[in-house]
Sequence to fold (488 residues):
Amino acid sequence: MQMAQIVGGYSLGGADLLRRAMGKKDAKKMAEERAKFRDGAAVDGLAGSKADEIFDLMEKFAGYGFNKSHAAAYALVSYQTAWLKAHYPAEFMAATISSDMDNTDKAVIFLDESRAIGLTVQPPDVNASEYMFVAVESKKIQYGLGAIKGVGQGVCEAIVAERKNGRYTDLADFCRRVDPTKLNRRVLEALIYSGALDGLAPTRASLMLQLPNTIKAAEQHLRDRQSGQNDMFGASSGALTQVVHIDLPTAPEWPLEQLLQGERDTLGHYLSGHPTDPWKEELAQLSTCPLGEIAVRYQPPKPRKNDNDDGNRFRRGPDTPWTIAGMVTAVRKRGDSDAFVRIEDGTGSIEVSFFGELYQQIAPLLTRDEMLVVEGGLRIDDFSGGGFQIRARSASSLTDACRKHARLLQLKLNGVKPDFVEKLQHALAGYRGGRATVVLHGYHNQDAQADLELSEAWRVDAIPALLRTVRALPGVQAAKLRIVKQAD
Fold:
């Protein structure tokens, strides 16, 4: 603005209008302003070419520029936050997460950063959590109840306030003591799914089973308390303070997938595990290495001898071939021919790009929660800050990859019952005709114990659905695949 005023003869108001036009990238307006700037500069004898050069510099700066006071303020804040993060990491990260607690995407980034710098994040807990995230030790952060979707600030503060009268012992105790005007079934379900009530029952399935009766008991307790019944001498009836005992049934825990889905729905991310956990061994056999180990194992190509020292020596040459396997967590499509997909495996994540014909072939697989095996070129993506990226050359579902490469299904048995063989036959029936041999480790009857290899007639398609089925059979301690990646 000062350059426009002094060199181009603008008034301060006119200079501000020029600044706005530059900020909006208004080409028509900028052309008008350029002519105006040239005319103003010519009054003081400045050549048109020089005026254009100055105007070009101003326009380039307008693309993204800081004035000195702005830059100084940023520098000071950067210094302060870096100092806090270095010397008080738990307190700093707890405050940072709390500041964006309602923005799940940002909160997840900050949680990942907390773990990356060596902090432990304790799961949400009605007997330990506050409304916000707090540092409970120098290297430990307690999850904030306010970050649970569907649980408002009022109920969080009511939970914390009542906890001063003693820890909650079970779900009935919790429902009876917390302000019932703030605690409803929807909130209770969110607390269960997030894991915040894990300390009140053996399993989350138990908590959900107990929920209807505990809600009824809490409502009855509230009605008794509000009735104001007094005895003939004006004293409160003992029935008012008596706690009615109710049965709290228990149930086996939900499958891992259901547990994790509940966490993602209420917290925005997985906390107690990862959906790839049941398939870790299979993913490891299909991939070059876990995603979290890429940074350690990656060896960039050496610079070529004829490269100059002008920056070309940092070129990485052809992409390094790599195979990765994991679950799709995000998909960003560009038109009808390109897609950028985030894949993670519980140890790390990576962006994979799909272009052209390959994208058209596998587009139906590029959906959230799909398990993929991708082969492609690994490179460092300098544009996005130095992270790794893979440009896909081929891709398949985990099911198709196992079907193609699995050669052995190993079942480790422990204490099978007489009807085991019949149940196993039924479980394998829908998968017969594949490439994988079935081996039973530790099979025994009344006379002997042995490892048995089933005949070729019982070869199967050893895919994840079959693994899930046989792992649920009574007597099966473990089910594993042996995968051999070789050209057919």
Summary: The chain has 19 helices and twelve strands.
